[in-house]
Design brief:
- The complex is a heterodimer of chains A (468) and B (362).
- Chain A has 468 residues and is of the alpha/beta class.
- Helices cover 41% and strands 15% of the residues of chain A.
- Chain A folds into two domains: 134 residues, Rossmann fold, CATH 3.40.50.280; 274 residues, TIM Barrel, CATH 3.20.20.
- The longest helix of chain A is centred in the C-terminal third of the chain and has 27 residues.
- Chain A is globular, with a radius of gyration of 23 Å.
- Classes of the chains: A alpha/beta (468), B alpha+beta (362).
- At the A-B interface, strand 6, strand 14 and helix 19 of A face strand 1, helix 1, strand 3, strand 6 and helix 8 of B.
- Strand 6 of chain A pairs antiparallel with strand 3 of chain B.
C-alpha cells in the first residue's frame, strides 16, 4: 500500500515507475525471474521494500540480483531496514542506501541528487560515502497534508494488479487458502500512521515510531481523501477495504466522521476493520450502517485470556468482563467477528495460558465468530521486548539484522533455523510457546466444530412459540 | 472517451449484488463466507474438485475500470449416475446493454468450466412466475435470492434456449393461508388418522434420511447421492420436522411412511439483519417472529391422500404454534400429478414457478 503511494508520487513527478511484487509475478508466471526483468528494463533505481522482517532474506537476495545484472542504485526502506540501516549497509554491499522512516520526500530528493552526488541533501538517508557510512542530518516526518498528497490507488502501477486483488488476504500471505472458492476482492486502506500505545510485542508502537521515523504522535489522512480512495476501490471492483489503523482508542471521532462521509457519498463497499482496542456500541452501529454487510467484519486482538498477562503486554488494558460486554454489543449488531490470540507473551505460563483457551472456547460458543486464531508471538525489531528484553522477561535469540536474515534464509533453503521466534521467555521455551498455540487451535477448533455440528444438525435452533 | 476492450471472467461475488439482489447462502462452510471464501470439495475419478464457482463477467474498459455484466453462482454436484454436473443458479444481469456479446462470453466460459473437470452436462435454474411472498428456500441450491425484491429478467429463458438449453423440469411452489388450509383439511378428513405423526428422534436422523431418499414421491432434488444435496444445510430447526408411521403396523417405528420439514421464511429476517448468512446469528433467528414458512423437504412412500394430509396438517399445527400465518410447499415437480392435484384441491395456488434447463455437452 505504501509502496503504491510512493510509486504514484514518482510517476506524477515524471519518473517511469513500476511496482513488482515478486511473489505475485511467480504466481502468474512460473518462469518469472528478476534477471529477465532487469534484462528487459533499463532501471536506474531499485527501491526494495524491507518493512517486515520476514522479508529479510528475500530483500537482500533481490538486492544482490539487481546489483549483479544492472547498474541500478539499490535502496531499501521500511521499518526493518530503518532499524538496521547501519548493519545492513555494513554487511551487504549490494545495498547502496537505506531510507529510514517516511520515504516520500526522501525518495524524490534522492532521485534529484543521485546525478550530482549530494546525498547529504536527502532526508532520512543512510548511505555509503567512500569506505564509510554517512547519515543525513535532514529529517522528514509526514504530516496530514503529505499523506493527502499521496494516491494509494493508482493500481495501474502494480504489475498483475488484477491477480493481486483476488489473492491478497489480511493474513499477509498470497492466497493462503488456494483450495477455497474466492468470493471477494480486497484492498488495503491507508488511514494514517503512528500509534499512541506501546504493546510489548509490537514494533509499530509509539516508542518504535519515534525511533524509526521520528514520529511522536499519530497522523491521520483526511477523511475526504480516504473516501476518494474508497470510490476508486469501488470502480476497480475491490469490494472489501481492509482498515487497520486505530491509534487512539479513547477517541474515535475520526472513524465516526469517516463513516458518516462514506454514507453521505453513498460508497457501496464492505470493510474489514481491525480495532486496536474495545469500542462503544455507537461505533459498531455506525459501522454496520455504513458498510455493505456482505464481507464486513470486525476484528480484535485480545492476545491473552489472562487479565494479568494482557495488562502486562497490551498498551491499553481491558478486563474479560469488558471484552464480553463488547462481544455482546457485536452480537446484538449482528456483525461477524474475528479474534486473534497469541502465545509467548511476557509473564505467560502454561498455567495462565489455560485462561486463553477458556476465553477462546467461551467466545466461540456464544458469539458470531468467523475466525479465531492463536499464533506464537515473533520477535519484532524495535518492539519494547526487543529494546529491553530483560524488563519483559524475554531472553532474545535475535538481536541483529543478521539473525533475521539467517533464519529466513534457512527457511527458504529448507534448512531448520536455530530459532523460529527469535526469543524464549523466563517461563517458556520456544517449543513450549509454539506448543501452546497449537493446543489453543486444537481445543478451540473442537469447540467450534461441536457448536456448528449441533446447530447444523438441528440440535440447537428452536423457534419461539407464540401464545397470542 | 473510454471504450470497451473486452470481457473478463472472475471468481467473485460483487458486493453490489447484495444490494440489488439480496440473497441467503445456507450451504457448506457458510461461516467462512464473510471472509470472502467458501469451500467444499467433490471427488471425481480420484481427483478433488472445488465445488463452488461464483462467476462474474465484466466489461474491461480502456481506463482500466470494470463494469460488471452478470453474476451466476455455479457449482458442481455428482448426479445419481456418478458423473459431475455443473449447475447454474439464476444468473443476475447488472448491465444488459451488450447482452448478446456478454451472454455469448458467459455461455462459452461456462462450457469451458464444465469440460475442465470432465463434466458433460450443465443444468440451470430460472425463476419465472412470482407472486410474493416467496418463502425461503426458493432454489434447489443453497443460494436463494429474495424474489420479493429481485426483478425477474424475462430474456433469460430466450438466452438459454438460444445457447442450446432445453427444458427438463418445471418446479412449482404452492401457497395458502395456514388457517384456510387447516380448516379445509379438518373438514375433509377430520382429526383421526391411520398414521402416527410426530417429531423424529434426532439421534436417528441419518437412518431416517436414508429411507426418505428412496421415496418415490418427494421434493425435487438434483441428486440423491451427493451428500450436500441429499441432506440440506437448512435442516437447522429441530422442531420443524414431522415423520409418519402406520398406526396399525406391527413394528410401526421401523418403517417410515412419510416425512416433511419446514423452514421459516428467512428473507423476513434478512430485511432486518442484513446478513447473507443468517445462521451465523442463530440466537436472533430463534427470537424472530416469522409470518411465512415453507415445507421444503418432504417425501411419501406412496400416493396416499390421507398420509399427505396428516403430515402437512401436523406441520401446519407446528407452524401455527410459532405464530406463522402462511405456508408454502415446494419444489413440486409439475409432473407429480398426485401432489399438484392434491394441493390444488385444498386451495393451494402457485406462488412461484422455476424452470430447470439442461444442456448436454459433446
Amino acid at each position: 500500500m505504501g509502496t503504491l503511494g510512493l510509486a504514484d508520487m514518482l510517476d506524477k513527478q515524471g519518473y517511469t515507475t513500476r511496482v513488482i511484487h515478486t511473489g505475485l509475478e511467480e504466481m502468474c508466471d512460473r518462469s518469472f525471474s528478476i534477471e529477465t526483468l532487469l534484462k528487459n528494463h533499463d532501471i536506474s533505481v531499485a527501491a526494495i521494500d524491507l518493512h517486515w522482517y520476514v522479508h529479510a532474506f528475500d530483500a537482500i537476495r533481490i538486492a544482490d540480483t539487481v546489483k549483479q545484472f544492472s547498474d541500478a542504485f539499490v535502496i531499501l526502506g521500511g521499518f526493518t531496514a530503518s532499524f538496521f540501516a547501519q548493519e545492513i549497509l555494513s554487511q551487504f554491499k549490494s545495498v547502496d542506501a537505506v531510507v529510514s522512516g517516511d520515504a516520500e520526500v526522501p525518495l524524490l530528493e534522492l532521485l534529484k541528487h543521485l546525478s550530482n552526488g549530494r546525498l547529504d541533501e536527502v532526508p532520512n538517508l543512510t548511505y555509503r560515502y567512500g569506505h564509510s557510512l554517512k547519515k543525513s542530518d535532514r529529517r522528514f516526518v509526514a504530516e496530514t497534508p503529505d499523506l493527502d498528497r499521496l494516491d494509494f490507488s493508482n493500481f495501474s502501477l502494480l504489475s498483475n494488479f488484477n491477480k493481486y486483488r483476488t489473492v491478497i488476504s489480511q493474513l499477509g500471505d498470497l492466497d493462503p487458502f488456494a483450495h477455497k472458492a474466492r468470493l471477494k476482492t480486497q484492498g488495503w486502506l491507508c488511514l494514517g500512521r503512528g500509534c499512541s500505545m506501546n504493546c510489548s510485542y509490537c514494533g509499530g508502537g509509539k516508542n518504535a515510531f519515534s525511533i524509526l521515523t521520528g514520529r511522536q504522535a499519530p497522523v491521520y489522512r483526511s477523511q475526504q481523501k480516504v473516501v476518494e480512495t474508497l470510490a476508486i476501490f469501488q470502480e476497480e471492483k475491490i469490494c472489501c477495504a481492509y482498515m487497520d489503523f486505530d491509534p487512539c482508542p479513547e477517541k474515535r471521532e475520526y472513524h465516526l466522521d469517516l463513516f458518516a462521509l462514506v454514507q453521505k457519498e453513498r460508497i457501496d463497499i464492505s470493510a474489514e476493520f481491525l480495532l486496536w482496542s474495545l469500542c462503544d456500541k455507537e461505533l459498531l452501529t455506525d459501522f454496520k450502517r455504513t458498510f455493505n454487510p456482505l464481507y464486513s467484519t470486525i476484528a480484535l486482538s485480545p492476545e491473552s485470556g489472562s487479565e494479568s498477562v494482557r495488562k502486562n503486554n497490551k498498551g491499553i488494558y481491558y478486563s474479560n468482563k469488558d471484552l464480553f460486554r463488547w462481544l455482546d454489543d457485536v452480537k446484538e449488531e449482528s456483525i461477524p467477528v474475528q479474534l486473534y490470540f497469541s502465545s509467548g507473551l511476557s509473564g505467560e505460563t502454561q498455567y495462565n495460558f489455560q485462561d486463553t483457551i477458556k476465553v477462546g472456547k467461551r467466545i466461540v460458543e456464544k458469539y458470531p465468530v468467523v475466525s479465531i486464531s492463536c499464533n506464537p508471538i515473533e520477535m519484532e525489531p524495535a518492539c519494547p521486548r526487543f529494546m529491553s528484553p530483560r524488563e519483559h522477561g524475554v531472553i532474545p535469540e535475535f538481536t541483529r539484522f543478521f539473525d533475521f536474515y539467517d533464519t529466513f534464509k534457512r527457511l527458504a533453503e529448507g534448512v531448520p533455523p536455530s530459532s523460529r521466534l527469535g526469543y524464549r521467555t523466563d517461563q517458556l521455551s520456544e517449543p513450549e510457546i509454539i506448543g501452546l498455540s497449537q493446543r489453543f487451535r486444537e481445543e478451540v477448533r473442537l469447540t467450534e466444530y461441536e457448536k456448528w455440528r449441533k446447530v447444523t444438525h438441528g440440535e440447537v435452533l428452536r423457534l419461539k412459540q407464540r401464545r397470542d | 472517451m473510454t471504450i470497451m476492450l473486452g470481457l473478463r471472467l472472475e471468481s467473485r461475488i460483487p458486493s453490489e449484488l447484495f444490494v440489488q439482489a439480496p440473497f441467503i447462502y445456507s450451504g457448506p462452510d457458510f461461516v467462512s463466507f464473510p471472509l470472502g471464501m467458501i469451500s467444499d470439495l467433490i471427488n471425481y475419478r480420484g481427483k478433488s474438485i472445488q465445488r463452488f464457482w461464483p462467476l462474474t463477467i465484466s466489461k474491461v474498459l480502456s481506463n482500466g475500470n470494470l463494469v460488471d455484466q452478470v453474476f451466476c453462482f455455479a457449482f458442481f454436484y455428482i448426479e445419481d449416475r456418478g458423473d459431475p454436473v455443473l449447475f447454474l443458479t439464476y444468473p443476475y444481469w447488472f448491465d444488459r446493454s451488450d447482452l448478446e456479446e456478454s451472454s455469448q462470453f458467459f455461455f462459452g466460459r461456462v462450457e469451458d468450466l464444465a469440460r475442465s473437470v470432465g463434466s458433460k452436462r450443465i443444468k440451470a435454474e430460472l425463476h419465472e412466475l412470482i407472486s410474493p411472498p416467496v418463502s425461503f428456500p426458493n432454489s434447489v441450491s443453497e443460494f436463494s435470492y429474495d424474489l420479493d425484491v429481485v426483478k425477474i429478467q424475462e430474456t433469460n429463458v430466450r438466452l438459454f434456449q438460444e445457447h442450446g438449453f432445453q427444458d427438463e423440469r418445471i418446479l412449482l411452489c404452492y401457497d395458502r393461508r395456514i388457517e384456510d388450509a387447516r380448516l379445509k383439511m379438518e373438514e375433509r378428513h377430520g382429526t383421526r388418522s391411520s398414521f402416527m405423526i410426530g417429531a423424529p428422534d434426532q439421534s436417528k436422523i441419518a437412518a431416517i434420511d436414508a429411507q426418505i431418499c428412496e421415496f418415490p414421491l418427494r421434493e425435487y432434488c438434483l441428486s440423491k447421492t451427493d451428500p450436500i444435496l441429499t441432506r440440506r444445510i437448512t435442516h437447522f430447526f429441530s422442531d420443524s420436522q414431522s415423520i409418519a408411521y402406520k398406526r396399525d403396523a406391527v413394528f410401526p417405528k421401523r418403517r417410515i411412511e412419510g416425512f416433511c420439514q419446514w423452514s421459516p421464511n428467512l428473507f423476513e429476517f434478512l430485511k432486518e439483519n442484513r446478513s447473507p448468512i443468517p445462521f451465523l446469528f442463530y440466537d436472533h433467528l430463534t427470537g424472530h417472529r416469522f409470518k411465512c414458512a415453507k415445507f421444503f423437504r418432504w417425501g411419501l412412500r406412496s400416493e396416499d391422500p390421507e398420509l399427505l394430509v396428516s403430515l402437512v396438517f401436523h406441520g401446519l399445527q407446528s407452524m401455527e404454534r410459532h405464530g406463522i400465518e402462511r405456508c408454502q410447499i415446494g419444489p413440486v415437480d409439475r409432473q407429480q400429478m398426485f401432489m399438484t392435484s392434491m394441493l390444488e384441491s385444498y386451495g393451494f395456488h402457485v406462488a412461484h414457478k422455476a424452470r430447470i434447463l439442461r444442456k448436454d455437452l459433446w
